[in-house]
Design a protein that fits this description.
356 residues; mainly beta; Neuraminidase; five-stranded antiparallel sheet; 1 helix; 26 strands; globular
């Protein structure tokens, strides 16, 4: 594990090479308070929000904003320009990526006290002890996963794309099946509730994304299993199960051939141990997140035909909820009553880990 000296005299000097050198591009010399550019079109509701909250991203107001809602999808309120929201484990903070990838930010659940922590990075996630992991590409270290304190200090490199994974026999291919040089990457980290394990995605190059695990200090990286496509892992509240996006082009009989959401033990050794959760048959489900009691998953999914600027296919994304006991699903966040743009997406949902 490589550490950056972030004391008052040395935070912006004395960097070592490798992942730590990359921190120059990640953290400024001080956190920066963010001022909202204009009053929200969909402000926070007047009534108090006391139920567990959902945070998600929407471009219903013309640009990407982070929103929150009650656990039943009611009382939708807009917080800040940005994407990729992530709740702290105590529910008191939301980390997110600023507009157009403008670094990692944090704010209170009501949108106040917005602070920019880094000059770049993506996919923030909170550790149970209050630190933040994020992914970043730098010229000095390539793709890597970093961790920092909640105020942006103490940037530490956990793992980079060149890490040696045991039993990794993957070959790299482009999207038409031709072999290409492998250019590995890592990202989308998430923490186990006990703070001992980090799940993340790894690609050996232009080929599949693989679900991987490592210890909390970045050591002992290992593949959970190899497959065509893994994305967006999320630990259940009790730490016994991972939910993730799983696509397998050789299984057209499952979920209509679309990529789907699956759950599995972190100790699974083969995809035969995965349990599949299908969503509405209109497109690929993405960004699964657990309810705080572990009986439901929230996710985003194409809902209807449209011409969305932020979707790769002509569909509109909405936020759905599935009951794991009987696989019943429903749209959770209702359609906007008066959106600034008629065709829009709601996506990247995440559930507060504790009841608020």
């Amino acid at each position: 594990m490589r550490h950056v000296d972030t004391s008052a005299d040395n935070r912006c000097a004395g960097w070592t090479r490798g992942l730590v050198l990359a921190a120059i591009a990640l953290a400024g010399c001080s956190s920066e308070e963010i001022v909202a550019p204009m009053p929200p079109l969909h402000p926070l509701p007047a009534e108090p929000i006391t139920r567990p909250q959902i945070a998600f991203v929407s471009n219903r107001d013309g640009r990407e904003y982070v929103y929150v809602a009650n656990a039943d999808g009611s009382a939708v309120g807009r917080l800040a320009l940005g994407s990729a929201p992530a709740w702290s484990w105590d529910g008191e903070k939301i980390a997110y990526v600023g507009e157009s990838g403008a670094g990692i930010h944090v704010m209170d659940p009501d949108g106040s006290n917005q602070l920019r922590l880094t000059q770049g990075g993506g996919s923030p996630a909170w550790s149970p002890n209050g630190r933040i992991t994020f992914e970043m590409f730098t010229e000095s270290a390539g793709y890597g996963i970093f961790v920092m304190n909640a105020d942006g200090t103490g940037v530490t490199g956990l793992i980079d794309a060149e890490a040696d994974f045991p039993a990794d026999s993957s070959a790299c291919y482009d999207y038409i099946g031709d072999p290409v040089p492998c250019q590995p990457s890592v990202g989308a980290a998430t923490w186990s509730p006990d703070g001992q394990t980090v799940a993340f995605t790894r690609s050996p190059g232009a080929g599949p994304l693989q679900l991987s695990l490592m210890d909390a200090d970045g050591t002992h990286p290992r593949l959970l299993t190899e497959s065509i496509r893994f994305m967006a892992p999320a630990f259940s509240p009790d730490g016994t199960t991972l939910a993730f996006e799983w696509g397998d082009i050789f299984r057209p009989d499952v979920c209509g051939g679309w990529p789907w959401i699956a759950t599995a033990s972190p100790n699974a050794t083969d995809s035969s141990e995965f349990e599949v959760v299908c969503g509405p048959a209109l497109g690929s489900p993405s960004s699964p997140g657990w309810s705080h009691h572990g009986t439901q998953l929230v996710f985003s999914q194409a809902s209807r035909a449209g011409d969305s600027s932020s979707s790769p296919s002509p569909t509109q994304q909405r936020i759905y909820l599935v009951q794991l006991a009987d696989r019943r699903w429903q749209q959770l966040v209702p359609d906007a009553v008066d959106p600034r743009q008629e065709v829009y997406d709601d996506y990247a949902p995440t559930w507060a880990p504790v009841a608020r």
